Amino acid sequence: MKTHRQPATRAFTLIELLITITIIAILASLTAAGISNAIDQANRLKVRTVLMDLKNGIDHYQTDYNRWPIVATSQGANGEDAAELLTDGNNSLVDTLMGIPPASSGTVDLNPKRTPFVAFPPGNNGRHGLVGAARPYKLADMYGQPYHILLDTNGDNQVKNPDTSNTEPKFSANQAAHLVTKVAVYSSGKDQAPSTGDDVTTWRPK
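^ that's the sequence the OP posted. Answer follows.
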């Protein structure tokens, strides 16, 4: 009488299991890194889009009104450009560019035509848009920080180059002291610190 034996199955050894788990972990980490990098790049693209909207809006305002969207006392002194502006709600720049009336009757109306030179959506959790209900409006980037704006208020067709003080040599080395532009805008980037390598700017290549 013949007996039928089940074919022997070879079990995984502990070493084989460890190797398999290690390979899976490596693949998972590579995938996660790829996803994280893609998200970072998408966020930077969104920020750059707003940078260019701000720059173009300011350019169009200057062409229309033949002045900058800031009060005369902010224009700078001794032949210097005005100090760097922030979209932090401490000035009416964002409201002016959006064609919104001044927040109070005592504030200079810099856009009496109510021309909307640019539009910004409400922010999400304090990021990527208009933040808060208080006026003047604050405009935040993807990282919850205000945008930085430099204007050629002295009329020499250039502004100071923020990259001359950048902490990364590849951006600060051999940099000209000024950028040949009337408007420059930048975000402090994911690290939320200005003058570092991950700043998003209107003057660097994409």
